[in-house]
Amino acid sequence: MEKQPRLLASQLLLKNSLFEVSLNRVLLTWKEVATKKKRVSGGMHHPFKVGTSHGVSVSEILAVRELDVDSGTKDDGRWQKMPQKSTEAYPYAFTASRPKHLLVYINPYGGKQQGERIYEQKVAPLFTLASISTHVIVTEHANHARDHLRTEAELKKYDGVVCVGGDGMFSEMVHGLVSRTQRDNGVDQNSPEEKLVPCTLRIGIIPAGSTDCICYATVGINDPVTSALHIIVGDAQAMDVCSVHHNNTFLRYSVSLLGYGFYGDVLADSERKRWMGPARYDFSGFKTFLTHHYYEGTVSFLPATDILGTPRDKTRCRAGCFICQHNGQLYSEDAPEICETDPDVPDSEYKGGWRVIRGKFLAINAASMSCACPRSPKGLSPAAHLADGTTDLILVRKCSRFNFLRHLLRHTSKYDQFDMTFVEVHRVRRFRFTPRYCQSDSELDLRENGKKLFSQICRDHPACSCSPAYSSWNCDGEILPHAAIEVGVHCQLIKLFARGIEEQPVFEDLPNPCAV
Ligand SMILES: CCCCCCCCCCCCC/C=C/[C@@H](O)[C@H](CO)NC(=O)CCCCCCCCCCCCCCC
Ligand SMILES: Nc1ncnc2c1ncn2[C@@H]1O[C@H](COP(=O)(O)OP(=O)(O)OP(=O)(O)O)[C@@H](O)[C@H]1O
Ligand SMILES: [Ca+2]
């Protein structure tokens, strides 16, 4: 067999500058060579080397274009021009995992309603340059993308799916793809104990929403061009998905925040103010902060004790995260769930490895990833991991308005939001919440039909006369009607066209203007 050359090297004249270019299997490098001729012994003119060497990883080259066609292509050992017919296929020769055919869903009404413009102006030209073919669907109503993916889409034709929108659109993609995969594999989503089958198609997000929390946490920025480049080069980032059940009935999946109390109430209020755009969250956040409702109930959880990492770690989930790799490996080996008991916790609080905590809570939050976003650059749980098979359960007990404000403010500074007497955080594999007062069927019906029970004030609630008995769960920006839920984490169930955050964002080290 003919031996393949390991290195190709040649000289390239570009705008009167001469470059020495070399290419091996992983790197394309170039270095300028001086145009001024230097006489060396023997009377020959040799260019001498100047400047520093530059390089780009072959896996990050988007496309190769032939600029001028030269008919004389005799093989004299130098680089040859590619014949025209092979330029079509050539871009895919760089790496095997690049997508060739994508199914794209655009939400024209997400965020500031710029989805179509962003896609047409910034993303489509890059896909064309990289010879990616697309089938584009502009959604006509909510859940259009989810239902199309779940039932109609001919997924065999595609190497990935892309959404142009915010976290809500991403959630539609997750629901469509995960449900379709379970149906195709005969898995019953209604069983909370069922191990779900991972999705093979990767999901790309072109950010065009209000929060873009998933994009921030997986890329580090919400920039459509950066996200398009991650799709083109075929990056892959695995992500955990939580399943949410009520009474052995599947409700929803969550990848970022499951929040009861504060974040549930903010969302319920903000849904009625969609016309305000992204500012609705600040308005409803301020209003909810002032109402200062707390909710009574029982939280039970299965601590993740056999894994690397804790929610109080200083290390962060970054590209190629070792903790995600290690814990993902544990999960795939089907290791038994060893539950070591915490010596500071009385035995009475453990039931079959589960811990049980009863109380009055301002907020119960489960963050399966950091939930970093511009409002909180380090996120709700800064040390949470994208793909470690766990979620960080944050319990904020009833406290004064002032203390709750201190806790909220710490999300925007370098100070630890968990280092407060009324806050605790646990890294868990599963959890349940049961409100103190059972929801009646009629109350649930009304909630399911989208009507909030404002008259439902303090029924059977002797403690006060102004606090409702139930909040709602904010499930990645969607309201759940049931207060009693059971949640399980499915390690690395989906994959994104992303590679994780590559470096510390600059804003993480900014001095704190308001340390309280
Ligand atoms: C005083 C400033 C404190 C700022 C504290 C900010 C902490 C913000 C943490 C944000 C976490 C977002 C998690 C992402 C969840 C997404 O799956 C979901 C779908 O997009 N987004 C929301 O539910 C959208 C949720 C949006 C929540 C916004 C909350 C804004 C709180 C403002 C409180 C103001 C108090 C002012 C008192 C003077
Ligand atoms: N054509 C459409 N008309 C109305 N609603 C739609 C349409 N397409 C999608 N949706 C719904 O719009 C909701 C919001 O969309 P999206 O997530 O793109 O933006 P956002 O809510 O502004 O951003 P974020 O989720 O980041 O806060 C989603 O829940 C989605 O189901
Ligand atoms: Ca996780």
Describe the structure.
- By secondary structure, the protein is of the alpha+beta class.
- The protein folds into 3 domains: 1-61, no CATH class; 89-235, Probable inorganic polyphosphate/atp-NAD kinase, domain 1 (Rossmann fold), CATH 3.40.50; 250-331 and 353-489, Tumour Suppressor Smad4 (Sandwich).
- 21% of the residues lie in helices and 28% in strands.
- It has a 15-stranded mixed sheet that branches. Strands 1, 2, 3, 4 and 5 form a 5-stranded antiparallel sheet that branches.
- α1 runs parallel beside α5.
- The site of N-((E,2S,3R)-1,3-dihydroxyoctadec-4-EN-2-yl)palmitamide has 27 residues, from α6, α7 and α9.
- Calcium ion (CA) is lined by residues 240, 368-369, 384-385, 388, 390-391.
**SSE arrangement, N to C:** EEEEEEHEHEHEHHEEEHHEHEEEHEHEEE
* Poorly predicted parts: 38-46, 85-92, 452-463, 506-516
Strand runs, count: 20
Distance between the termini: 71 Å
CATH class wording of the largest domain: Mainly Beta
> What's the Cα radius of gyration?
27 Å
Give the fraction of residues assigned to helices: 10-25%
Stated plainly, the CATH topology of the largest domain is called Tumour Suppressor Smad4
Q: What's the helix count?
A: 10
Largest sheet: 15 strands, mixed
Protein name: Ceramide kinase
GO biological process, one term: ceramide metabolic process
Pfam families: CERK_C (PF19280), DAGK_cat (PF00781), PH_CERK (PF25382)
Organism: Oncorhynchus mykiss
